[in-house]
Structure formats: C-alpha cells, structure tokens
Here is the input.
Amino acid sequence: IFSFSSQKSHHFSRLSAMSVYKLFYFDIRGRGEVVRQTLALAGIPFEDIRLPRPADGPQWAEFKSKTPFGQMPVLEVDGKQIPQAFAISRFIASQHGLAGATAFEAAWVDAIADQWKDFHTEFSKFLFVKLGFREGNEKLLKAEHGIPSLDNFFPLIEKQLKETGSGFLVGDSVTWVDLLIAEAVQVISTAEPDFLDAFPEVLKHEQKIHAIPLIKKWIENRPEQRR
Amino acid sequence: KLTYFDGRGRGEVARQLFHLSGVPFEDNRIPMAEWPAHKASMPFGKMPLLEVNGKPLPQSYAIFRYLAREFGFVGDSPFAAAWVDAVADQFKDYFDEIKSLLFVHFGFAQGDKEKMMKDVAIPARDKFFPMLEKIAKDNHNNGHFVGASLTWVDLLIAEHVSVLLKYMPGFLNDYPTVLSTVKKINSIPKLKEWIDKRPDSTF
Here is the structure.
C-alpha cells in the first residue's frame, strides 16, 4: 500500500521462533534513532520502515490515522502497535538486558532519559533553527535557550559518568539511555563542533558507545551515513 | 522517603502508590520558602525526589514507574507496561502544553485565563483527549486506561482530571468515557480513603 524505503536489519542473532518487528518512522534519525539502535544492540532483526516527510508525499497523511497517537515512531510487534520512542526503547531494552541490572538502576536509566527530554525540549528551540527545520533568530535562541539548557544538563551527565566510573551512565553495562545520550552528543557536536568541549567525559562516552561493535556496524550501514 | 512541595503536583501519584500498597513512607513536604535551600542537594535540582534506603532517585515518572513495579501497578505484561509508558509520555507532552494556564490557576504565574483557555488549553485538549477517549472506550470493559488492573497511568490521569474539573468545569464534557473511567479509579476504596484525608492544596 505504502511505498517507502524499507531495510532489513543485518543483525540476525537468534533464529528461534521470533516475533516480527516493524519500526515506522520518518527517513531521518530524530526520535527514531534510539529505538533503531536499541533494536540493533539487542540483536533483533526488524524492518526499518522509513516514510517520506509530509512535504515529499502522502504516505504519512495516510498512515497517521492508523497510529495510536498520530505520531511516530511506532513499533509493530506481531502486528500490535506500541507508540512513543521511550516506551518502545524501554520495552525492547528491558527484555534484552539493556535497561540496568536492578529495578533501581532501571529507574535511574529512566530518570536520565526524562532529564534529557526536558533538556531537549528547551535546546531544540535553538537546534531546530540551527539545523534549518524552522525559522528563527539563531543567535538569540542560542543565547536564550541553547546555552542555558546545555549548561543545566551536561554537568549532570558529566558528574554521573565520573560517579559510575564504568564508562556507562548507569551501572556497569550499556543501557538504552547510553544510546540516547551518545546520539544526542553526536547530533550536537555535528551542528556545533565545540559546544561540548567543557564536558570531556561526555565526549569520551560518545566515542565509547559508538565503538560498541553492533552500534558501530549500525551507524556505518544506516542510510544517513551512506548519503 | 518522598520529598516534594506541600501540594499534589508532580508528587501525588507517588504518594497514592504508597497508600494503595500499604507500604509506609516519609511524606516529606517542603514549604515553598524553604525550597531554595534544598535545591542544591537534589541530584537534578528538582523535586520530587524519592529516597530508597537513603539512595536518591529523581524525575517523577521514573519514581512512579519504580514504585509501580515494586508494588504491582505497572501493567500485567511487558506489552501492557509499554502502553502505560506510552500513554503517560503522551500525557506529558499534552501537560507541557496546558501547564501554563494551570500555573495561573494555581497562583504560580500571572496570565489572562480566558485568552489562555482559547489559545493554549483548548488546542492542547483537542489534540490529546480524543485519543485518550478512544483508548478509554476500547478498554471500557476493564474500567482502566490500560489493561485489566490499576496502573500508575490511571492515577496520573485521574489526578489531572480532578484538577481540570475543579478549575475548568465542563472542559471535558466531550469525553464521557475518560470521565467515567476517572470516576471508577477515584472510587477504589484505598485511593478514596487517601483522597478524603490528604492535606488540601491549590495544586
């Protein structure tokens, strides 16, 4: 029915009776990337369905009413839909050892993710103008929203990394919030190369997470990288 | 130990989870004037803060989900739990849009209530509540928003709807299933007991 690009994940790890996973999002990294990376790190094969943006075709207009909240990403598991990027990521992560080793660690993963969301709500007022997604006074927004939100959020992440000492944000092993933060750092560093220079642990963390073999492979092969 | 302002706000769902489960907790309420002195000791500079055997946990939804998991209010399967999370996060997006008017009602900010109703509240409502009404209708045999048993997103929505009914009566007249689901939730004996005896607050 829809014609949009679809790529099968390269990461087949188990050939037992597996559920069928389809992820629906736009053909960008955006809010979908943390979900794609969580699926990739969990070794789950999935159909990475990418809809053209509304300006480029009617596919999203048609699909929108079929989503629970009129938004994407949406994960379909054996035909059943789950909306909301964090709900999806947590659903996959918690079943594949990527959500913390204890209930309390899982809660800290959630807390850092929600703190990032608060940061991103503010920061994106600047970032989306910088990236050309909307109109605005870039310089003013950087001063009023970009820098203050950055200075509120990244010291917390820097401190958290120093405290765990493991190279991961929570506990001793990788969780989905590591993927979320590393992706955000990559986006910010690409847009404004020196913006995170005051946060060396944060920059090291991004390098470390993106060097994890399954993540490195995902990044190398994702459509955005090959354009 | 739960530390929050002396009001319902972003702490109430945690209190309700404790009261529903019968697990004792220190309900540490900080007067507004004393808040600045506490801010620096909070991991993320904000409240609510949960302490579990002295170990801190910030961020309201992380706290609610943690307590809900401990006490059995998180959903009856991983899929249901994911839907609880999704409805909660969708609610959060809606709340971020409407909160500016609510803060005026609570007395935290100045604003033209009528103008904000038209420009802010009604658009936010009209984006979110039709979807919530459908979710409630699809699940109406169960009397909850998600699944067959009480979850923390039921409490989250019921508390917010109570605020709307108090400050903006009639605001949800077009969403009868949401209202009837909230009514069912609020009549759960242990919850009703807490609601009847809890301290009053504007927020």
In short: The longest helix of chain A spans residues 103-130. The interface with chain B takes residues 68-70, 77, 80, 82-84, 86-88, 90-91, 94-95, 103-104, 106-108, 110-111, 114-115, 121, 152, 156 of chain A (CB under 8 Å).
